[in-house]
Design brief:
alpha/beta, eight-stranded mixed beta sheet, 17% strand, Serine aminopeptidase S33 domain-containing protein, palmitoyl-(protein) hydrolase activity, AB_hydrolase_fold, Hydrolase_4
Length: 284
C-alpha cells in the first residue's frame, strides 16, 4: 500500500514538474523580459520632469519595429554615453542617471526603449533586441552630432549583455564600456536562481552568451566592471569571469561588498569610480 502511494505521489510530482518546465519554456520571454511589470508600459516619465532638454526620436528597425529614443545633447561634450537598460522598468526610470551623466559629467546621452518596453512597439526577445541595437548603432554612427564624439556604453544586467553585443559587433565604433552586474549567459544564471531547474537550462532559448562575445571585443577598448558581491540574481563570479576573459589591456574591476543586484549603483564610491574612469580615459 505504501509503495502504491509513493508511486502515485512520484507520478504526480513528475506531471507537475513537466507542466512547470513546459510553462517555463513557453513563457520564458515574459520572465526574462518583464516589461509588463508594475505598469511600466502604461506611463513613461520624460527628461523634462527634471528640466533636461531632449529630443524624442522614433527609430525604425530592419524588421519595421518603431522604437522610442531620447537624444540628450550637450554641445560642449566630447563623448556620447549610450545607456543600455536592464530587463525591467522603462527608460523613464533612468532619468536620475541621465541627470548625472548630462549635468555632472557634461556628457551627451542617448537612451532608447527596447522593443516591447515603454512606448516602443513589438515584443522583446534576444534576436529582436539585437536588431534594436543594430538600428541604434546605425543612427549614432551616421548622425552628424554623435559621429564626431567618442561613444561610451553603459549597461546594467541585461543592458550589459546588450553592451557586449554592441562592443563585439561594432568594435571600431565603441571607445569605452562600463558594465554593472552582468551575467555570463542567462543559462548560467538559472541554477543560481532556480536550483531545481539546473538540468533543464538547455530549454532556455534566450541565451545572451556574454562570455563568448567578450572574446570578440577590441583589446584596445577600455572596460570598467562594477560588481555587487551580494547580487541575488547574477552570481558575482560572473562579473569576475567576464573581467578575467576581457581581452582589453585597459580594464578595471571594482567590487562592492554590500551591493545587491539593484542597489550597487547607490553604494559608496560608485559614482566617484565612474567619474575617475571617464576622466582617465578622456571621455570627460
Amino acid at each position: 500500500m505504501l509503495w502504491k502511494v509513493s508511486k502515485m505521489l512520484f507520478s504526480g510530482f513528475l506531471a507537475l514538474s513537466s507542466i512547470s518546465i513546459t510553462t517555463l519554456y513557453l513563457y520564458q520571454n515574459r520572465l526574462v523580459y518583464p516589461s509588463w511589470a508594475q505598469g511600466a508600459r502604461n506611463h513613461v516619465d520624460t527628461p523634462d520632469s527634471r528640466g533636461i532638454p531632449y529630443e524624442r526620436l522614433t527609430l525604425i528597425t530592419q524588421d519595421q519595429i518603431r522604437l522610442e529614443a531620447w537624444d540628450i545633447r550637450n554641445e560642449n561634450s566630447t563623448s556620447t554615453l549610450l545607456i543600455l537598460c536592464p530587463n525591467a522598468g522603462n527608460i523613464g526610470y533612468f532619468i536620475p542617471i541621465i541627470d548625472i551623466f548630462y549635468r555632472q559629467f557634461g556628457m551627451s546621452v542617448f537612451i532608447y526603449s527596447y522593443r516591447g518596453y515603454g512606448n516602443s512597439e513589438g515584443s522583446p526577445g534576444e534576436q529582436g533586441l539585437k536588431l534594436d541595437a543594430d538600428c541604434v548603432m546605425s543612427h549614432l554612427s551616421t548622425d552628424p552630432f554623435h559621429a564626431k564624439r567618442k561613444l561610451v556604453l553603459y549597461g546594467r544586467s541585461l543592458g550589459g549583455a546588450n553592451a557586449l553585443y554592441i562592443a563585439s559587433k561594432f568594435r571600431n565604433l565603441c571607445d569605452g564600456v562600463i558594465l554593472e552586474n552582468t551575467f555570463l549567459s542567462i543559462r548560467k544564471v538559472i541554477p543560481y536562481i532556480f536550483p531545481l531547474l539546473k538540468r533543464f537550462t538547455v530549454l532556455c532559448h534566450e541565451i545572451w552568451n556574454s562570455e563568448s562575445l567578450m572574446g570578440s571585443c577590441s583589446p584596445e577598448t577600455p572596460f570598467l566592471f562594477l560588481s555587487g558581491l551580494k547580487d541575488e540574481i547574477v552570481p558575482p563570479f560572473h562579473m569576475r569571469k567576464l573581467y578575467e576573459t576581457c581581452p582589453s589591456a585597459n580594464k578595471k574591476i571594482f567590487e562592492f561588498p554590500l551591493g545587491s543586484h539593484n542597489d550597487t549603483i547607490i553604494q559608496d564610491g560608485y559614482w566617484d569610480i565612474v567619474r575617475e574612469f571617464l576622466v582617465e580615459k578622456g571621455f570627460i
